[in-house]
Amino acid sequence: MSNNKNASIDRQSLGRSITQKNNGSYMKTIKAKENIWGYLFILPNLVGFFVFTVFGVGFSLYMSFTNWNLIKGFEKAEFVGLSNFKSMIGDVYLGASLWNNLLLLLVIPATIILAAILASIMNRGIYGCAFSRSLFFLPYITNVVAIATVWRALFHPTSGPINMLLLSLGITADSIPAWLSSTQWALPAIMIILIWKDIGYNILMYSAGLQNISKDYYESADIDGANAVQKFLRITVPLLSPMTFLLTTLGIISSLQMWTIAQIITFGGPGTATYTLALYIYRSAFITYRTGYASALSWLLCILTLVITLIQWRGQKKWTNY
């Protein structure tokens, strides 16, 4: 009897093990089919990524070591080693571009301060605050060419509305800025446009951050007799520091890559007054056809952006709570 029971138990165990193996094989087959279909669905994106990104990055890196001229074709490209990178030293146009990019960083604190104040005011539930946010955000999504056309008219030195307003305020014609045609005022004019364009996005981000601040903090401050300025500086500003850090990082990267507005409005002029690194890359590649040198400049921009990104990664652990 015991032998029959043992045999029965062995047959049951063998049956369970076979069933488990079959189930395991079936599940592996199902998982393999799911993986295949998943890769097939993302295949177009993978092809686009490798063709337009991976290949483009590798091609740019190789061409940065050549004296390639775009209109002469690949067969005329000559390997020159680090010559393009050495040529950056003492390049007047590159120096002016980097200096202008550095000055454009002043746009970031101006935009952040104005956006934080306006977002705090709108967060109080004033009448029409949703409509106001939409109006402020509209320039951020408006076509750059349209923006440039409007601001060129506004900054017209003789018949522009801005200078007409300054004249009506009593400023003499000799004292009003020439704006876009002046080496002194062209870059500040670009900075004004950038502040006007980006402030809506910052307001929207700060408005989202303000929604996460508990009203209990402000009620406690009211009990202690704090005024609006004290509550803004001691409650709102510290609790919005993660958002401020994020907007600062994005602003720096955007400033390094800014070239469309400068190209459309001033094309880098007058002289090199509004040159930026990205604009200089464009001019080197498609105007003077120093495409190999433009590739080297692109890698300089890539390195600068990478450094900013690494700083952001290191800093987000301290400044972000999300």
Shape: globular
Radius of gyration from the CA trace?
30 Å
Protein structure class = mainly alpha
Helix tally equals 14
- H/E series: HHHHHHHHHHHHHH
Helix percentage: over 70%
Number of DSSP-assigned strands = 0
User: Whole-Å distance between the termini?
Assistant: 68 Å
Can you characterise this structure?
This protein has helices spanning 2-63, 83-87, 92-104, 107-122, 129-141, 144-154, 161-168, 186-210, 215-223, 228-239, 241-257, 260-265, 277-286, 291-319. By secondary structure, the chain is mostly helical. The protein starts with a helix and ends with a helix.
Secondary structure layout:
Layout: H1 2-63, H2 83-87, H3 92-104, H4 107-122, H5 129-141, H6 144-154, H7 161-168, H8 186-210, H9 215-223, H10 228-239, H11 241-257, H12 260-265, H13 277-286, H14 291-319
Helix pairs in contact: 3-13, 4-8, 4-11, 5-8, 11-14, 13-14
Question: What's the short story on this structure?
Answer:
With 322 residues, the protein is an all-alpha fold. Helices cover 73% and strands 0% of the residues. The termini are far apart.
